Amino acid sequence: MAYAPYSRYQVGAALLTEDGSCYQGGNIENASYGATNCAERTAVFKAVSDGRRRIKALAVTGGLEGTEPSDYAYPCGICRQVLQEFGAEDMTLIVAKSVTDYREFSLKELLPFGFGGESIK
Ligand code: THU
């Protein structure tokens, strides 16, 4: 359900919460560009606004409209920071080109030395 009329780069994310719920999200672009929301954050904010605050795993894929993904779509820096806030300690991040071609990472691998709630206690 990506809304990407400007870049035509469509991203989809699906996440699993600690209580076993699934949420999906697409990127939502804006004519101002800066107000664009990434797919990962769309999915995370849907979960959080439903009261689900611990994410166990998140998968993301992306590609130009009408084509198969040509590369892995890694989460941007802002999305990594949002996952730092709501990801479980051992959260898994999956970047996928297809259901059989994907890579798995921990959040710590993609955001080492992250800044989180613990940092300001
Ligand atoms: N995008 C995402 O949805 N997730 C990312 O982590 C990186 C970028 C989107 C934003 C924009 O709509 C499009 O990809 C091109 O940057």
Describe this structure in words.
This protein is an alpha+beta fold. The protein has a single domain (9-116), classed as Cytidine Deaminase, domain 2 (3-Layer(aba) Sandwich). 21% of the residues lie in helices and 32% in strands. Strands 2-1-3-4-5 form a five-stranded mixed β-sheet. Helix 1 packs parallel to helix 2 (77-86). The longest helix has 11 residues, at 39-49. The mean pLDDT is 97. The site of tetrahydrodeoxyuridine has 13 residues, from strand 1 and helix 1.
Mean pLDDT comes to 97
How much beta, percentage-wise?
25-35%
Tell me the radius of gyration: 14 Å
Number of structurally distinct domains: 1
Please work out how many helical segments DSSP would assign. Answer: 3
Helix content: 10-25%
Structural class from helices and strands? alpha+beta
SSE series = EEHEHEEH
> What's the main sheet like?
5 strands, mixed
Terminal residue distance: 39 Å
Question: What's the name of the CATH homologous superfamily?
Answer: Cytidine Deaminase, domain 2
CATH fold annotation: Cytidine Deaminase, domain 2
The CATH class turns out to be Alpha Beta
Q: List bound small molecules.
A: tetrahydrodeoxyuridine
Q: Can you name the CATH architecture?
A: 3-Layer(aba) Sandwich
Shape: globular
Spatial order of strands in the largest sheet: 2-1-3-4-5
What's this entry about, in short?
Helix content is 21%, strand content 32%. By secondary structure, the protein is α+β, with helices and mostly antiparallel strands.
